[in-house]
Structure formats: structure tokens, C-alpha cells
Amino acid sequence: MPMPDASVVGEVTLEVISPDSSQQLVRVNELPFFIGRGDAGNHLPIADKRISRQCAAIVSREGRYYIEDRGHHAGIFINGKKFNKGILADGDVITFGLDDAHKLVFRLSKGDDATINTLLTRMENVTDTDVSSGGLRKLNLLLEATRLLHSQLPLDAVLEAMLDRAITVMDADRALLLEADATGALRQRLARRKGSASLAAESFSPSQTAVALALKRQIGVITDDVRQAEVPLQEAQSIMMQRLRSVVAIPLYSMPRANSAESMVHILRGQFLGVLYLDSRRPAAFSKLDRQILDAIAIESASILDNARLVEHERERRRIEQELGIARTIQQALLPRGFHDFPNLGVSGMNRPCLEVGGDYFDVFPLSDGRTAFLIADVAGKGLGAALLTTMLQGALSGMSMGAEPARVVQHLNAFLCEHGDTGRYATLFFGMVDACGNVEYFNAGHPPPLLLRHGEVTPLFTQGSIPVGLFPESQYAAFRAKLEPGDMLVLFSDGVTEAHNTARDLFGVERLKELLAGQQEAPLEQLQQKIVEAVEAFSKGTMQADDITLLLVRYRAAVQSAHSAT
User: Fold this and answer.
1) Mind spelling out the 3-state secondary structure of 508-534?
2) In the sheet where 451-454 sits, what is the strand order?
3) pTM above threshold 0.85
4) Is residue 93 domain-shared with residue 241, that is, in the same domain?
5) 66 and 185 share one domain
6) Low-confidence ranges of the chain (pLDDT < 50)
């Protein structure tokens, strides 16, 4: 691959924000940096069927970074504006012209090769007098603080050093870093005092009035002398009791991000991170350079907190992904295996959750009276909550293999779910039992009726109304009976099959499924199952899978044929 343009300075990362608001930080360590659906050839694969395989690329030219559209059908957008090739700046938001899709935030850090001249260019109207009267020393402190951002020191050590430099620049007595939690509430994280000395954060009593004013105005409150400041500060009890003369409170925000197409003129603040607070018992005379250096230190402190937050989010995301991966492995392992071992039945089944784990479930198992049971269930909702209830259902229903009466088990499930209604979960269920002669006894609890394929024609096995388990404690579930002929096939499915939709929001529907099954009497079960899955995928191409997809195909064969495979 081509290497980055040597004239481009700085480390580039992409903050990848998923539709569920989870975030991960991806380093751009090779250029061109390819983005698209799937792993093949892409440095950043995006799991979204609506994204083109060859979607976009980040490149560098003449010291600048660009993003190029490499064939994405909906276009590439920077801060809401469509580009074939657009220049990228720190904080730019890259989107793909799709609702509820991934967003990428472009991050460019300058590294530690910054110089005093570079810092001077960030200051407005810095005069020779400012520099000659101690300003150069203060700029050196800012340079040191900037370098700290890229050091390998522990986070708290970096923050402490930043506070020490802020105290020196402002000639303050002490400094405090207040950090915001997920709700925006502030906690006192670190405190320092003059002379690079530690100070117990809990012993620090900052002026709540100054902090409140800074948060309300969303800008720093910097007072040279409290006695000449606005009335709320002059009358603040904590300021008077501690005999404070100068107070500084600066709110810290993550990097501002553009928001929609109007963002070229309207920039929103990033996430609120905390407050940098300093005070002194002496009046101060802050120059313009002092204030700008303090603002720069505040920005660097915010950057440190923001990076730490992103790292923590990434760790948490990976931990959750690992745990969900384990849960998915366990859930898939609980699905039945060895379908060919069932007498008088050929069976094939599959389950594809739309998330890591799902709420669909199927099973096939022998009963003590010689019959074979088969079932499919769908717990309301998706994800981990549905998966937990699915596992409970599996355990309860497997008890029927030891001779438990099916009607009593279904009634018990309904009573249990209703009794624990605070979970907000219910389930649809179809449960059947077939003997060697093809006699079927079955219960349906609100599940889509299976389709019966007989002599090449498709009809529903069950047409009566039914109620899911877990809705009404007084519900009664009656058994129904049917007779299967040799070669008959039952197709059980979850609504993730029939309610899959295309880009026009049309549903796949039962009729399409019936048309697909018609004439497939002799088709091998696994082959027919794959055909159904591929038809659903082709129909819903360009959309995300919205629900779990589960299929269970059961073909009856006569007892005299039981020794031969029907699949």
C-alpha cells in the first residue's frame, strides 16, 4: 500500500459512532485508508448492508487530508454537505447519506513536534511586550503541557502536571479539576497547590457561584479581583469565607462537532467533560496572553479527558462484545444437533439473530412415549433480555422429554410469565409431537402457523386464533390434532422471515414464502432451507436485518422408511 504523504503532520484517528451510539476509535495508520462493507480490502469494515463494498478512502495530498467517494451509491457527506472529494479538518463528521447509519468523526492531533512559533500562531495579537515580560516562559509552559498530552505517563500524572502549569501561568494558590459523570454531575477528581504539591481533592471547596456562572454561560469566568467583579461573585459566601481575591472557572468540552448541513455556520459544543478551577487569596492582573494560554491549557485538559473517555468507552465496548460473543456461543450451542437421528422425521433448522444474541429458539427432541417433539418460539424483543428468557423457555420445555404433560407445561409457562410481568416480555410458541404413524398433536400460542407442503401444494396447518404466553393469566391452551402423510413437510418460521422488508418497506410476506415452497416436495431440506434464506436476503437487500430469522423444516416419513435418510 502507498505510504502517507510525508508532508502531512500529525496522528489521524476516526471516531466510529454506530447507530446504537456505541463508539470505537480507529487509527488511520496507512494511506489510502479504505472504508466499506466487508473486510476484503478495507481498513475500516462497516457492518451495514446499505454501505457499498468500495465506499470511500482517506488520502493525503500536499499536506492535507481528503476523503474520496469510491462508488458509494448514496454519496459521501462532510458535515452534511455532499462531496466527491472533500478536505478534512479536525472534528469533521463523515456520513453516508443514510438514516440511522454509522458516523465517522475525523480526528487530527499535531503530535509533540509543535514549536513555540506554532503556538504563537494560535494566539491572537500577541505583542513583543507580552513575550518579553514573561510571556515566553509561559509559552514554554504551554508547550510542555501540550507535549504531556502525547506522553506515556499515567492519566492522573498528566492531569496533575497540567494543573501545576496552570497554577504557574496564573500565579494561583491552588487548582482543581472537576470531572462530569454520565449525567453531567461534577465530582472533584484532582487538586494541586502552588509549588507542584498534592492536595486532597475532597478538602477543596471551590466557589460554587463561579462554577455555576461558567456552566450557565458556557464560557470561562476569569476574575482579576473579586472585589471589583460582578455582584454574585462579590457576595458568594465561599469566596468571602476563604478570603479569595481571584477566581477562575473554565468549563471543559470535547472537540466541537458539526451538526447537519447547517453546520458550516452553526457549530455545536461537544460533550461536557468538567471544569478547570483555580483561585488565589491575592488579586491578579491577567494579560490577554495569560488568558489565551489558560484557554489553551483548558483545551488540552479537555482533550486529555476526552481521549480517556473514548479509551474507556472502547474498553467497555470490547468487554460487552466479548461477553455477548460468549452468550452467542452458548445460545447457538443450545440449539439441537444431529437432526438425522430422529426416527420417522427428517429435520433441518437454522437461527440467525439480528443482534449478537436473539429471542428466537427452536428445538427437536424425543419424548418418553416414543413420539418426537418439535417447537419454535419467539420472545418479544431482541438482544440479551430476549435471549435470557429464551433460555428459560428452553429449559422449561425440555422437561417434556421426561414425560411432563404438554398442556400443563404451556399453562405453567403462561402463568410464570404473567406472574413476572414486570419483565415486559411475552412469547409466541408452536409446539408439536408426532408419532411413527404420522399422528400430530400440537399447541399454538400466538405463533405464525406452520405451512404444510403436501403433494407440491402449500396450506397453513393451523388457522384458529391463539394468544401468546405471558399476556393473560386466564388464557387456556388447547391441543389440536392432524395426520401427516409420508413425504409431508412442515415449515415452521419466525416473523423475521415473513416480516423482512425491502427498501420500499414492502414485507416478504407469507404468500412469497408459499410460492417459493410450492413444488419443492422432494427438495433436500438443507437445500430448501438455504433457498428460503437467500430469497429473504435478496428481497431485503439494501436494508438491515430488523428481526431474528429462524426456520425449522420437518419432513415425515413412514415407519418402514425410518432407516433411510429423507434429507
Assistant:
1) CHHHHHHHHHCCCCCCCHHHHHHHHHH
2) 345-352, 549-556, 489-493, 451-454, 457-460
3) no
4) no
5) no
6) 1-9, 111-133, 257-268, 561-567
